[in-house]
Amino acid sequence: MNNLTYSIIVFFSAVVIGVAIAFIRKAYFKKEFDTVVKYFIFYGALAVASASYLRESINSSIQQTAQIEKSEGLIIEKLKLIRDAELAYLSVNRQYTSDWDKLIKFVNEGEFFLTEKKETIFELSYGVDSIVVQIDTLGTVSVLDSLFTNRFSDFDASDLPFVPGYEGVKFRVWADKISKSGLLVDAIEVVNPRPVNPERDEDSEYTTKKPLRFGSKYSITTTGNWE
User: Fold this and answer.
1) Would the pTM count as exceeding 0.70?
2) CB 128 within 8 A of CB 136
3) Strand runs labelled E in the chain
4) From the centroid of its chain, how far is CA 121?
5) Could you tell me the sign of the dihedral formed by the alpha carbons of 77, 81, 82, 88, in that order?
6) What is the phi/psi pair of residue 198, to 5°?
7) Where do the structural domains in the chain lie, given as residue ranges?
8) pLDDT (tens digit, 9 = 90+) per residue, 42-52?
9) Is pLDDT above 80 for 56?
10) How far apart are CA 28 and CA 41, in angstroms?
11) Between residues 222 and 64, which one has the greater pLDDT?
12) Predicted local distance difference test score (pLDDT) of residue 178
């Protein structure tokens, strides 16, 4: 039992016992000894029952909070994996995807090109330097190996779309281009459609209180609302 739980129980019990003493004193000064005994038994039992109920309620609340934190931790880790996959997809295909099948196939079969950049400086006859940039392709590396299986031995790309803790529930993914400063840029938002925490609300004015997500439909970001 933590200090807060103990303090609340002690305070509540003290209030009940205080009320009991007041009634007992009143009955005592009236020489109603039977009533004194009845009050003592009744309020004593009430104090014990109330303290027990309060303790169980507080402990239940603490356990529920711990379970929510654990479940959300798993969801956040999955969102991070999806973000890594989408950023890799963007770097190769120059756009995000809202198609889970395309993303899974890319993770399983896609490759990064390993390149080397070389710059050569030539001095022109009129005293100005000219820079020639040459990019050589050295080879390729698997997206799956470089981003996932080297970090997670049990990684399964086909499991990416699904929210941990729910059977068959998929993350909601949106990917498109948005206009920023007159330019079309790529944007993405991935949201958990079924929040574990009942306090999370899509209509909340605070981003951190909305269902877990990363990215935005309105700005160029891939930041998670847990960060």
Assistant:
1) no
2) no
3) 111-123, 129-142, 172-180, 183-191, 213-215
4) 49
5) positive
6) -65, -15
7) 3-65
8) 666 776 777 77
9) no
10) 14
11) 222
12) 96
